[in-house]
Amino acid sequence: MTHPLFTKHEATLDQALAAIATRGYWSPFSEMPSPKVYGETANSDGEAAFKAHLNRPFELDQPFSGETVGNERSPFGFELGIRYPKMDIDTLLAASTAAQRQWRAAGPTAWVGVSLEILSRLNKASFEIGYSVMHTTGQAFMMAFQAGGPHAQDRALEAVTYAWDQLRRIPADAHWEKPQGKNPPLAMHKQFTVVPRGTGLVLGCCTFPTWNGYPGMFADLATGNTVIVKPHPGAILPLAITVRIAREVLREAGFDPNVITLLATGGNDGPLVQDLALRPEIKIIDFTGSTQNGNWLECNAHQAQVYTEKAGVNQIVIDSVDNIKAVASNIAFSLALYSGQMCTAPQNIYVPRDGIRTSEGQMSFDEVAKALAAAVEKLVADPARAVELTGAIQNEGVMSRIAEARQLGEVLTDTQSLAHPVFPDARVRSPLMLKLDVHADAKNFTREWFGPISFVIATDSTAQSLELAGSIAAEHGALTFSIYSTDDAVVEAAYATAIHGGVALSINLTSGVFVNQTAAYSDFHGTGANPAANAALSDAAFVANRFRVVQSRAHVAPKAAAPTVGQTA
Amino acid sequence: MTHPLFTKHEATLDQALAAIATRGYWSPFSEMPSPKVYGETANSDGEAAFKAHLNRPFELDQPFSGETVGNERSPFGFELGIRYPKMDIDTLLAASTAAQRQWRAAGPTAWVGVSLEILSRLNKASFEIGYSVMHTTGQAFMMAFQAGGPHAQDRALEAVTYAWDQLRRIPADAHWEKPQGKNPPLAMHKQFTVVPRGTGLVLGCCTFPTWNGYPGMFADLATGNTVIVKPHPGAILPLAITVRIAREVLREAGFDPNVITLLATGGNDGPLVQDLALRPEIKIIDFTGSTQNGNWLECNAHQAQVYTEKAGVNQIVIDSVDNIKAVASNIAFSLALYSGQMCTAPQNIYVPRDGIRTSEGQMSFDEVAKALAAAVEKLVADPARAVELTGAIQNEGVMSRIAEARQLGEVLTDTQSLAHPVFPDARVRSPLMLKLDVHADAKNFTREWFGPISFVIATDSTAQSLELAGSIAAEHGALTFSIYSTDDAVVEAAYATAIHGGVALSINLTSGVFVNQTAAYSDFHGTGANPAANAALSDAAFVANRFRVVQSRAHVAPKAAAPTVGQTA
Q1: Residue B247 pLDDT > 90
Q2: Which end of chain B has fewer CB within 10 Å, C or N?
């Protein structure tokens, strides 16, 4: 019995299956906030929907006491004033557990069909979600729309597709018939049932609540688990809207909406999360956040499958270039984009202290550093345009980190406050770039400085730059790694470095692709092979252990005739 | 570049891929020790090869100090007297690490091709390995040959097949081309490299050293990892022969034989194993053994992917039967086979205290218990035939457990020493069966009594039997579960119980299939859904996290022409 929602979306799923196999470009969701695609009034409707959430209780029909929580503040300078239902953990776990039986029994095509329908509805809400992502994370609108809307939906669909790609390999039943020489064969009928783990917990982050939260959430749903979504206290709204839409779809499809629930918190939720994460009902945890919290989950939540994305040190090795301007402007864009508040943003830029070869001759280290700094300065020269790239600083922790980083070395370009033309109280800072030395400053550049902070590091040679990049990735984690070189042997050595460090390599990016961007269905986000993440988005390993298979077997009559005396084959 | 050994075995691999998809009967390895299949002198040659190992050093060209270890004793009553190279852990890890680079670079078809060639050679050594399994585990020869030879090879091939089924989904490269409206598309060439985790550690058990050891070993090899095989000190020889054969194949194929190494120990190796298991070089651990040791690994070896098979309580629910004799004789066989020293052997048999329905009328609890005991007694009535079923008791721990169990309740049939016609000093015991009560004896029957020990437990009802079976499986683990019922609704309830307990169900087994047997490619062994095992043999989850993928991307020229002004689609 194929679920009708599966049939409805099967053509999309088939295309997605082809995309993850060939890994070329594909997406069913338009990344342009175009009125032609989303409707003439989609932008204003979405903004109005966002504004309608402000300064009032968020309606969510979950079983709760009546108390509310919520302290979100837009990095663009105002309180959201939204109050969410405060959930008691025991009540929440009981509701999630109670929803399991019917959901589990519905089977794979229902799980996948419902997941795809939710995504289709989320896509229609991309503007509302986009504005919500903007005013919780500090992303500028275009990025909030794209990364928080269609790109997040792509990563979700990718996870659903991987889940289905594994689920479809489990036959519902089998006839097993073993020859027994001259005796009749042994024959058995076997039945195979996909059994979800139980309840999954998704722990969201404050910078990419949907993009980082959706893969685990949809991998759980598509494999028949129920899900508790615990957003970061600073970025609840995008996930609250998501959960509400998902619950609507579940209810319409005849399921208990508590298959997915929201656990909103008002801040300082560490002890509550630790309690919840160790509860026996929680069988899967998807986490994006600090290394400290991620490691704690990996080392303590033994009852659960734990998938983490944590801190890392992203690196760029500059060996030689054709056109330093193209290189510097590509790198500057990566540094300025959302003020470096991306897990994929580069931090360490290694340049040999003796300089590099370019098509216009040798450039000294200082000239390269200056070109990089100049490119950043050019990008942020016009604040009104710059803020559409940098967005705002998500939290005060990033602000203090910028202040602390300014003391680490010679400033190549200093951070400055940028005036936002629309939001006068927005917390906007241009990127800070410092000059460091490979020998003197290792203790500082071997850790993550999350935010608009980068280091141009003088090394003894490209060979040393590569060795360092590989060992830092392997020991401290990394999600991205770039090489700039006109020498094929160096590029090849960089790929060997990437393999050693377990990190994806981008080679000579100069045009419209940036190292901090990954494309769903094509680029794996993270590898699971270094400390920055123990999983990749998405692959078979990300989904295959979210369900198990229980089987039965019973004798049946053989289908083959027993050999007859005198008969020859 | 497809490796020649992959091409050589590709037809077998294709059949194995079809088998795991349809889960019907299939095997490329003959389970009958037939001269027609294995050669006229295979049996005597194999026995001679086994005997040639006795009382001398085992030749293995691993880097070692010259010291040797080894204290194996046949449960059939003699010292093996074999001395194995004693390995220093640092030397071993260094050798395994040094072997990684070339092996990793060889790529998936080499890993899979070499694995398949090793299996083909192991199959030819099935008699030598069979005798070695017999005289380390205590299995009777036929079982030692089948479970230790072709069936273990089947489970290994199954793991290799699952590995290949995942590996083949990763394209070597991709062309990614994203339309940009009226501008030329963005185009990138991407390269994907499968990167093994590093070094795997396989921790063997003393009852099924090859059957339980091969899946992890071959899953590691087939995904490009190097492997250290640490057999149980009581059952080294079968894995030592295996490692030697694997090293020969590796060497012939031009690889460093240290891709696979043996770590033999002389007993009391707990501290050494704990040291090794936490070493950062160890990225994967496959363990079969006690719950205590398995849990320790799961909770402490955070640097590794840990796959465990531990203790469990296997259960049979008797509700109603057509033919009690057929039921009793099937169950008795399961209890006697290898003296219950199987992780799949039943232990708890629940019968309602008010008795059961049969086609010949109602039977009281005591009549059912007596029928079960009588069937066991009949099976072991002729010691010379019985020993071919029971084999010998592997170790003194099982002997003391039998003695302890005799005190737990009313004895239905007592254990007795059986004389072995060939090996007068063999440690052979017939099964012990006790009568217990569901209310009084729960503290005893909720844990595993590994060995020829079973309990017929009086319950209040079949409903209670099922409830108990499900909750014991979920809380204490179980690998097998049987229902005997002529009522479809009860069978259906038993399947719901199996899903709750995360355990495979066998329904009304009466002819030549026994609950303790699982068929590779068709039956999953373990589910990973209860405490008896955190993984199943084999499925995608068992292999997909043993490797990771590292990619690169670089700009290339688009393949599609940019839209031309005036041109319409």
Answers
A1: yes
A2: C
